[in-house]
Structure formats: C-alpha cells, structure tokens
Amino acid sequence: MIKICFVLGNTFLVTKGGAELQAYNIAKALSKKEYDIHYIHQNVWEKRIKKDGIMWYALPKIPRKFSITILNYPTLVKLLDEINPDIIYQRIRTIYTGMIAKYCNKRNVKFVWAASSEADCGNKNRDNIKRRILWYGTTKFGEWGIKQADKIIVQTKKQKDMLYENFGLDGQIIPNSQNIPCRKFEKDEPPKIVWIANMKYWKQPEYFVKLARELSELDVKFIMVGRLKPLKGYKKKIHELINQTESIDYRGELSYYEVNKLLEKASIFVNTSLPREGFPNTFIQSWMREAVVVSLNFDPDNIMERKNIGIKAGNMRKLKREIKDLLKNDARRKEIARNARRYAVENHDIEKNIELYDKVFKELLKE
After folding, report:
1. Cβ-based neighbours of 285, under 8 Å, separated by 6 or more
2. Number of domains in the chain
C-alpha cells in the first residue's frame, strides 16, 4: 500500500480555505483507494485523530507574523520519520515547502508540490515594508523548495505558463475537484444573489456591499457569507459597512454543507476579488448547482468567456448591468447555468480527477 503524507499549514477540518478543501478532497478520495493517508497540519486541537480514513497530526501553532514556523521543523521531521511516507504532498508555497524539500532530499522521499494560486507561481511581494525582511527569507526558502519537487501540480494553464516563465519549471494541470451533487435545483423567489469568501482585503467584500446598496430597489435578496472575527482593523470596517446596509443579509461563517445548500437556492454568485485567485472552489460549487458566476475581475484561463459558463465584468458599472440583465433575461441566465453545470461535471469531478493523481503517484514511485 502506498503511503502518502499531506503537509499544509492548516486543515479543512478547522480552516475553510480553498487550498485546505482541495487537499482534504484529494486525501479523502485517495483513502478510498489503495493508499495509506496521513495529514500533518499546524493547529491547536487533538494531536492525533483518525477521521474520514485519514490519520491527522497537529503541529504546534506558531504565529506566522513572527516568521518562526521553522521552529516546527524538528517536530515535523520526527513525525515524518515515524510515518515513513513514500510520497509527501505539500500545497501552497510557504516555508513548509522548503522544509519538506529539505526533508525529502535527506530521506530520499518523493516530493509533490501543488500551487494554490497565481502568486505561488510568481514572485511574492509584501506591500508592508516592515514585513519584507521577515518574509524575504521564507519566500526564498519556499521558492527553493518548489525547485526540488519531483512533481508540480498546477490548476490552470496560466499558472503553468507563469511557473515556467518565472522559475523554468514544468507543471502538470490537474483541475480542482469536488463531489458532484446529483439533484435538480429549485431556485428561490425572489432571486438570491450571494457573496461567499474569507473576509480578506483582496477579496474586496466592500464592493458587494456597494452593489447591494446601489441595487437595493430590485426585488432580490443579497446574502453575504464569511467570517468577520476578530472584529478589528479591516474586518471591523466591513462589519460596520454591512450593519449600515439594510439590503444585505449577513449569515456569518457557514459550513461547507450549508454553503452548498445556499448555492442550490441561489440564482447568482458574485466574486469581487482582485485578479490574484487560484481557481476559486466557490466557482465550481456554483457551476455544479446552476448558480451563475458573475466575477468583477477574475476568469481562470478565460474559460467563463470562452465556454459561456459565467461572466467577467471588469468594472462595477458592467457588474451591475450584467446582474440586472440576468435577472430580467431568465432564458439567458438558465442557459449559462446549464452550460456551467455541464462543464463542471466534465472537468471538476473528484472521482474522475483522482485517477490523474493516482497515475502521478504511481509513476513517481516507478522512477
């Protein structure tokens, strides 16, 4: 039986991020095949548990702002030696990328690294000059790490091109994957327009608040989902904006299951992020549930435009215009929704794409 160990800073059992969801989906799907799956993460909870066919291990949680996660290296090495994996899978370019590369080089273990965003495939910068020196070392260590990988997985052609242009490295495209919901979706009336994301500055939730204010005369429900705690700094400002906007129904942080149930009833999903996403899981969740994706800035590999499975507006004026048209033009909205569902089923089915990972892992061990 092939033994694979996943190493990430967080786990989807605790942190509802996109990279964590994908790692969880892949690990769970592999555990149903001929694989012994282990997952090491950094968090504060039980040190070892068995769940979903996966053995989970928690490293001490060290504040990232001090850039001292490297202090976890001795504990990480001890755990990995105990697990004795055939392959280590690490996602997101972080200090852990360098740590895993170093371990794999010393122990002759195969190393698979996966990009989670376009930033992973380019040169990461920090706007805050006080943090540049602290982050420079960890960024370079992560960059060195990906150059040591035996296999690199990317999400899009753009990421593949960026990886080659910036580092001269080749990556294999394996799409983000989810389970396919197999049922007919009845959309609510009045229509629901939803925004779902982590409340980070580059997700730009304030633009959805602005949208809800400027379209408040429409007979629709604007719903926001995302964790705002702790209420300080940027998150406090967003909380105040939401409280001042009567047309927004703020639901807080929801579980993955609750988000999917919401999208089954929603007509439109709005993304307002800066164009630095990887491949949003919310796009796939929406496509599979026939909620039309309207994005302010981001369209991975221009597939929404090329395949007519969503809309990239480019600016707020067009974003408002497109949403109004979708609400008026029921036939257009349903056509895009059906196209998106078909595309997602063909390209983002976890049961299909796990075979690609299976092939990658088995070929690595043959080398």
Report:
1. 178, 259, 260, 263
2. 2
